[in-house]
TrEMBL record:
Residues 21-52 form the ChsH2 rubredoxin-like zinc ribbon domain. InterPro entries: ChsH2_Znr, NA-bd_OB-fold, Thioester_dehydratase-like. Pfam families: zf-ChsH2 (PF12172). Signal peptide: none annotated. PANTHER family: BLR3430 PROTEIN. The lineage of its organism: Bacteria, Bacillati, Actinomycetota, Actinomycetes, Kitasatosporales. This is Benzoylsuccinyl-CoA thiolase.
Length: 151
């Protein structure tokens, strides 16, 4: 029997799409003012000029452009879960501008992509990712991958 696949945060992305290219981050759109939010908002519109409470789930654009990026080279302190017995692996954090939604979304780059592989304005796509694994679970998330990069 395989390990359970568990999203790091339920409802923030499509959990098991039929095709990998159907993977999307999930936001919400206010039915009154059309503002889009990520992370999702399910109770009220965050737009200060709107009092809307009708929020609809919407898939966000699958591609965007690198707005900024940096690398994480240190083991974060508690309460971050990190196994001290395992060697710390640096990661690349990417801020991606989604033009249609008029927002910037953060996420890790796919493993193997470093800051040397990125440039501001480069096109990237959202893909399924793994944040952590243990004997019982695979904790799923999203990653950003440069368009044209191999999986």
């Amino acid at each position: 029997m395989g390990r359970a696949r568990t999203p790091v945060v339920a409802g923030w992305f499509t959990e098991e799409p039929e095709r990998p290219e159907d993977f999307r981050l999930l936001g919400t759109r206010c039915a009154d003012c059309s503002a889009v939010f990520f992370p999702r908002e399910d109770d009220f519109c965050r737009n200060p000029a709107c009092c809307g409470t009708r929020l609809l789930e919407v898939p966000l654009s699958p591609r965007g452009r690198v707005w900024s990026f940096t690398d994480g080279r240190y083991r974060p302190p508690a309460p971050y879960v990190s196994d001290p017995a395992r060697e710390w692996e640096p990661y690349t954090l990417v801020a991606v501008e989604l033009a249609a939604e008029r927002m910037v979304v953060l996420g890790q780059a796919v493993p193997g992509i470093t800051v040397a592989d990125l440039a501001v304005g480069m096109e990237v796509e959202v893909v399924p990712g793994v944040l952590n694994e243990d004997d019982e679970r695979v904790w799923t998330t999203w990653h950003w991958r440069p368009v044209g990069a191999r999986p």
